[in-house]
Design goal:
- 2 copies of one chain form a homodimer.
- Chain A has 2 domains: about 90 residues, Winged helix-like DNA-binding domain superfamily/Winged helix DNA-binding domain (Arc Repressor Mutant, subunit A); about 50 residues, Dna Ligase, domain 1 (2-Layer Sandwich).
- In chain A, a hairpin with a 5-residue loop joins strand 4 and strand 5.
- The first copy, chain A, is of the alpha+beta class.
- In chain A, about 40% of the residues lie in helices and about 20% in strands.
- In chain A, helix 1 crosses helix 2.
- In chain A, strands 5-4-6 form a 3-stranded mixed sheet, with no helix packed on it.
- Chain A starts with a helix and ends in a 5-residue tail after the last strand.
- At the A-B interface, helix 2, strand 1, helix 3, helix 4 and strand 2 of A face helix 2, strand 1, helix 3, helix 4 and strand 2 of B.
- Strand 2 of chain A pairs antiparallel with strand 3 of chain B, so a sheet runs across the interface.
- Chain B binds a DNA duplex (25 and 25 nucleotides) through helix 4.
Chain lengths: ~140, ~140
DNA sequence: GTAATTGCAAATACTTTGCCACGTA
DNA sequence: TACGTGGCAAAGTATTTGCAATTAC
């Protein structure tokens, strides 16, 4: 665990970042929580709340995302996305991380079996999924 | 196309909503655009911009989401989520739509093959994906 | 010493609500 | 008529930035 933190901080160092207390605590927190976290959660977490300002956490997250150490989940920076549910229709999406282009993927979705397994193993009900592919589109590349 | 709009509006009617111009135009817009859209995009779209206020679109989206006619994408209502990328590790997530619980899915991810196909067919580069399962956890059910 | 990083406070951006008028059933 | 719906404007919440002070290297 601590080893992974050290390795990750080393990667940051090689990418030109400085070794600060806030950076180490941020990475340790993300690693030990082991699920996606929000800026607010991180800034208020025990390792960071007295360590630094929320703006610092924000800028750390920003730099780490640029350098590919962390990933910001979801389709867009700010706004919420809505999609129409048409019975018998299901779309996965392909999104360009440069220009924001969003298009539907024309292929059978390969996760239904896993979805069934999860339903059985976890007891979750009303299960559905979202699947998005991200990358650089030919135009932007 | 128009048929699907009509069917969808009928579903809304059966769920207690009234047939308004704004509702029809909103559904028509979502259907013809055929990708997730934001509140802002919808309110500014040609079918809606002169038709109604942004607050109206907001409330329509809210009602439609409650009734299961549309879906709001992503993990949370407002905040952005960040996750640490550890080389050689990949997580899909299972999220409870009631209490917000997020846990990692312990299963081989079944979409790598499709990801390869997309890479080849579309020419997208630096491809990666996000896969989330949503449902009601046993505790909330 | 120099450039990256930080804290604080102010500014944005997108969302959400209150309240009263209006339209559909 | 009655209750869902709509417009306008104000409030709320999470994010983002400016700038001077600080810190890592």
């Amino acid at each position: 665990m601590d080893k992974v933190v050290a390795e990750t901080v080393d990667r940051c160092r090689k990418l030109g970042m400085r070794r600060t207390k806030a950076l180490e605590q941020l990475i340790a927190t993300l690693l030990e929580t082991d699920r996606p976290m929000t800026l607010g959660e991180l800034a208020d977490s025990k390792r960071l709340t007295d360590q630094c300002d929320k703006a610092t956490v924000f800028r750390l997250l920003q730099r780490l995302a640029e350098k590919g150490i962390i990933r910001r989940l979801g389709l867009h920076e700010r706004a919420a996305y809505f999609t129409l549910l048409v019975p018998g229709r299901h779309h996965d999406y392909l999104i360009c991380t440069e220009c924001g282009l969003i298009e539907a993927v024309n292929a059978p979705c390969p996760v239904h079996q896993l979805e069934d397994e999860i339903r059985q193993k976890t007891g979750f009900q009303n299960l559905y999924h979202e699947l998005e592919f991200f990358g650089t589109c030919p135009t932007c590349a």
